[in-house]
């Protein structure tokens, strides 16, 4: 997609550009014209900030079981590969919607609407997702965010000067996935966090993402201690992945409600770790806030 086809919203302090394909955030630029998102280099990772639905992560052999039937889904689901309808397009807000259709019913047998709302407020971008069950039975699903930020961030600091800072201490061990299959390994590993802080380094991601399957922090900050930083806030998503292609010029901070299948998992989809259910006729809401924090 060309830049001219992206939808721009802004406050004067911050401008976001979103692609209707995947309802995906592609660009986040401050008043100085500095870009905070990954450039989406297809030779490294073509994503920018995909919406993950109705699964997060990979399935065992790419398939899941539901009510005695078997279905196939790609890693992270189909929303990121779907074109959303634009419902609202205003100066500071845009809203997208994806409804169940013949293609989605083949791989996910539920009637749904996935509404994604972007709003710029000063130097903050608020992203709201509503998962609406339009059917007559409870609808199991997972949802996740996958924003990729420039590393180093604009401002002149070196990559090695950047830090990840959690709003709470996170002493717990982390989970990893099998890099070949993307499935969750059974053993927990010693985490990199000291207190509430760690220094991201390429070698930490040689075995794929760092995964917290129960994170306490609602806010994660990324950037140099005294420089311009990004704050990622999610109050309702209990899991977190931090990932990059080792050595690449981006870092993903990913709040999730859901996780990859454990190695060997063969249970029903409703038993998959992180899967939740929305009752018939109801909508469940999720939010992610991305704020640009000025240098101290």
CA(first)-CA(last) distance: 37 Å
**Helix fraction by DSSP (H/I, runs of at least 4):** under 10%
Structural class: mainly beta
- The CATH architecture is Distorted Sandwich
Q: How would the global form be characterised?
A: globular
CATH fold-level label: Beta-galactosidase, Chain A, domain 5
* Number of DSSP E strands: 22
- Oligomer class: single chain
Q: If you had to describe this structure to a student in words, what would you say it looks like?
A:
The chain is mainly β. The chain is built from one helix and 22 strands. The model has no long low-confidence stretch (mean pLDDT 96).
Task: List its traits.
mainly beta, nine-stranded antiparallel beta sheet, Beta-galactosidase, Chain A, domain 5
In short, what is this structure?
The protein has 296 residues and is mainly beta. 2% of the residues lie in helices and 39% in strands.
Layout of strands and helices, then pairs:
Blueprint: E1 7-10, E2 14-19, E3 24-30, E4 51-52, E5 63-66, E6 69-72, E7 85-89, E8 93-99, H1 102-107, E9 112-121, E10 124-133, E11 139-141, E12 143-145, E13 148-150, E14 163-166, E15 197-198, E16 210-212, E17 219-223, E18 229-233, E19 239-243, E20 250-257, E21 276-278, E22 283-293
């Amino acid at each position: 997609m060309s830049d001219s086809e992206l939808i721009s919203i802004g406050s004067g302090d911050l401008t976001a550009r979103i692609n209707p394909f995947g309802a995906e955030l592609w660009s986040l630029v401050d008043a100085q014209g500095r870009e905070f998102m990954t450039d989406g280099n297809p030779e490294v990772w073509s994503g920018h900030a995909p919406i993950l639905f109705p699964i997060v992560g990979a399935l065992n052999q790419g398939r899941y079981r539901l009510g005695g039937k078997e279905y196939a889904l790609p890693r992270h689901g189909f929303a990121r590969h779907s074109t959303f309808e634009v419902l609202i397009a205003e100066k500071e807000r845009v809203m997208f919607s994806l409804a169940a259709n013949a293609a989605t019913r083949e791989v996910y047998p539920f009637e749904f609407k996935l509404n994604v709302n972007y709003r710029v407020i000063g130097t903050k971008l608020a992203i709201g997702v509503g998962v609406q069950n339009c059917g007559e039975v409870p609808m199991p699903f997972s949802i996740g965010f996958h924003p990729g930020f420039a590393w180093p961030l604009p401002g002149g600091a070196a990559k090695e000067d950047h830090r990840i800072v959690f709003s709470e201490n996170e002493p717990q061990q982390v989970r990893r996935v099998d890099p070949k299959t993307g499935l969750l390994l059974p053993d927990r590993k010693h985490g990199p966090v000291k207190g509430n802080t760690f220094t991201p380094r390429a070698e930490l991601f040689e075995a794929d993402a760092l995964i917290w399957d129960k994170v306490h922090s609602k806010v994660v900050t990324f950037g140099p201690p005294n420089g311009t930083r990004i704050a990622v806030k999610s109050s309702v998503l209990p899991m977190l992945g931090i990932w990059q292609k080792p050595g690449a010029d981006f870092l993903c901070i990913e709040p999730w409600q859901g996780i990859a299948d454990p190695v060997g998992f063969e249970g029903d989809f409703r038993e998959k770790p992180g899967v939740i259910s929305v009752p018939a006729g109801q909508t469940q809401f999720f939010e992610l806030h991305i704020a640009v924090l000025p240098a101290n």
